[in-house]
Amino acid sequence: MCRFFRDFSQSVFIRIMLIFFVAMIPIVSLSYYVYFYGSNLTNKEIAKSFSVKSEYVIESLEKEVDRINYLLYNCIFIMFI
C-alpha cells in the first residue's frame, strides 16, 4: 500500500497537474479581481449617469414650474387691469 502512494506521488502526470494548478491559481485569482473591479466601476458609472440625468430632469421641471407661475401671474395681472 505504501508503495502505491510512493509510485503515485512520483508520477510525471501528477507532477505536471500540480504545476498546472499551482500556476493557474494566481491567474484565475487575478481574473476574478479584474472582473469584480470592472463590475464595480461600471456600476459606479451607471449610478453617476442616472444621478446627472435626474438632476437635469429636476432642474428642467423647476424651470417649467417657474415659467408656469410667471404665466399665471401675468394672466391674473392682466385680468385685473
Query: In which range does the helix fraction lie?
Result: over 70%
Mean of residue pLDDT values? 88
Shape: rod-shaped
Straight-line distance between termini: 112 Å
SSE topology string:
HH
Individual helix count: 2
Which helices and strands appear, and what pairs or packs with what?
Blueprint: H1 2-9, H2 12-79
Describe it.
The protein has 81 residues and is an all-alpha fold. Helices cover 94% and strands 0% of the residues. The chain is rod-shaped and about 110 Å long. The termini are far apart. The longest helix has 68 residues.
Structure, briefly:
This protein has 81 residues and is an all-alpha fold. The protein is 94% helix and 0% strand. It has helices spanning 2-9, 12-79.
Characteristics of this structure?
single chain; 81 residues; mainly alpha
